[in-house]
Design a protein that fits this description.
Layout lengths: L1 E7 L4 H8 L6 E9 L6 E5 L2 E5 L2 E10 L4 H12 L8 E6 L5
Antiparallel strand pairs: 1-5, 1-6, 2-5, 3-4
Helix pairs in contact: 1-2
Length: about 100
């Protein structure tokens, strides 16, 4: 079994979840997270003055999948989360051991 952690843009989450609706998942968790990568930060405006936000809003989707289905699930995430711009996010695949 593998744990897949995908960090995606908030407006792409529903699209990814719709694609995963029929995928063979054991468990799925979703969290709102903040962070930055190569993007670093962005400028925002509030009441006429600009300020810098150090952390960008993202959504973390954590899935547990049987080994033979990992590539299929990762492919679905990439196809539906990728915008082609900087800050699309990351996908991590980690080994997971089930202990009952």
């Amino acid at each position: 079994m593998k744990q897949i952690v995908a960090i995606v843009k908030p407006y792409r989450v529903q699209r990814v979840l719709d694609a995963l609706k029929h995928a063979p998942l054991e468990v799925c968790e979703i969290r709102e997270v903040k962070g930055y990568g190569r993007q670093k930060n962005y400028l925002d405006e509030y009441r006429g003055s600009e300020y810098s936000l150090a952390f960008l809003p993202k959504v973390e989707i954590t899935l547990w999948v049987d080994d033979p289905r990992v590539e299929e699930v990762v492919r679905l995430i990439v196809e539906n989360a990728r915008t082609g711009r900087q800050g699309d996010g990351k996908i991590f695949v980690l080994p997971a051991e089930v202990i009952y």
